[in-house]
Write the structure tokens for this entry.
Amino acid sequence: MKYTETKLRGIYLNQMIEVLKRLKASEGYLSAYSNGLDEIEFDSCVLQLRKAMEAIAYASIVPNKNQYQAFRQKAGTNTDYRKDFNASKIFQYLQKVNKDFYPVPLLPAAKVGLREWHYDRKTEGVLSPKRFQRFYDRLGKFLHADNPWDSKKHRQNLAKDINPLIDQARSLLELHAAFIRSKDYKGVWIVDVPKNGTTPKIISAVATGDFVVGSS
């Protein structure tokens, strides 16, 4: 099924809303765990955080949906992209269809001319692709019951890293660019995801041809 650019923008915004809700839920469960060291609260925190990260991965598919679907259909097995769920694998696939698939964090726009605005890249305190994938994989072992014959999982070591990770995820998404290179649309979405929970918004900008994403 082919989606219009307008439809895709709506899906993307819904994913951003889900990410924010799950990050908030994860913080709540972590706070409860910190107060009582209840392992059930910790496991709930981990589950919500991992789902938030998966929602970010699903969001990253959205601007690349048609290319992603076509790429997955060429796989030898498990060709249905609708069954994908592992964020690390989704990122590996997306890298093949759009090397600039990962959200690019931005600073607020500065006016540089008549109807001209410039967005500098945010470089501090944001969740990098490598840290995203490492942390996502790290969360995985806490999604299963403890094996009594295995070594302890050391929840406290992970617990102290969760709030900084959540802060970095929010900072990444707060204002970011999603770049699109499809047959029907070449351009960028400037996505505003307020930390205060108000509704996310997208500004859509169309490019006249192919483009290069710089490092600054």
Observations:
- The chain has one domain: 5-206.
- Helices lie at 5-36, 39-61, 65-73, 87-97, 129-140, 155-174.
- The chain has six helices and six strands.
